[in-house]
Amino acid sequence: KMAAGEAAGRYRSTMSKSKDPSGLLISVIRTLSTSDDVEDRETEKSRLEEAYEKCDRDLDELIVQHYTELTTAIRTYQSITERITNSRNKIKQVKENLLSCKMLLHCKRDELRKLWIEGIEHKHVLNLLDEIENIKQVPQKLEQCMASKHYLNATDMLVSAVDSLEGPLLQVEGLSDLRLELHSKKMNMHLVLIDELHRHLYIKSTNRVGQRNKEKGRISSLVKDASSVPLMDVTNLSTPRKFLETSQFSTPGSSSMRETSLLEIKEDMELDPEENSTVFMGILIKGLAKLKKIPETVKAIQDRLEQELKQIVKRSTTQVADNGYQRGENLSQENQPR
Known about the structure:
Helix 7 packs antiparallel against helix 10 (277-290). Helices cover 80% and strands 0% of the residues. It is mainly α and 338 residues long. Residues 1-21, 316-338 are annotated as: Disordered.
């Protein structure tokens, strides 16, 4: 018993010194290796066995005393172990699902990109179809604008249609006839505008002067001596030069201001375009600029200048002669041969 007690005491002292179980094994091996007699070894062995038996008894007693707590701890440990295992399995499943979702999202992204590109293509096709539908109505609208003499709107419409037909719609074979027709109209449009410009520049303006002269002639024949021939008053006549040099510009004669004034000219579709002759001529010039036919216009004006001025002299002479003849008739009826 004393040997067993000593062995147990040595076991406890060794375990208290080091919590590593290998320390006890090393101590026993050292003891057995230092003993010379077999009996000492057997004695050491019996001491160890007694010490282990005592430990087992103590352990059994502790287990009996703390059975409930031990059972609860074991169950709790099992539950925790099961939860950890389940969590690991779930995390593994989630990782697999995430990889699957990633692959599916890549596929969906490609499909969405394809659908987005198709949507843009369809939208572009619809825009082209709308543009084609509008261009098909251009000849009819152009004829209406030309008939009502809204030349600026007609020019804008024609230039825009030709640009579209020779640009984005160039490959549309079904529009070839319309393309040729509108291109021909565009090539000849400036001739109409130049004729209108000459009519207002030389004929319309002088007609107004002649009309004013006739009215003054009637008044003078009633209140003044018939022999006095009224002079033409052209001081208040609006001419293109006066239009460009009016007080509406801060700097008279400034080219930049002239350009701005031309850009500000707009065409009112509700009003008579020829009501204001000066504005109408500005609209004609703006239309010719959009057609890029200003050089041809200048050349035409220069070529026809002498002819038109001769026509003005001829018309004015005829008007003066007609007025004089009418006054002579009136005077002869009043018995005033003078």
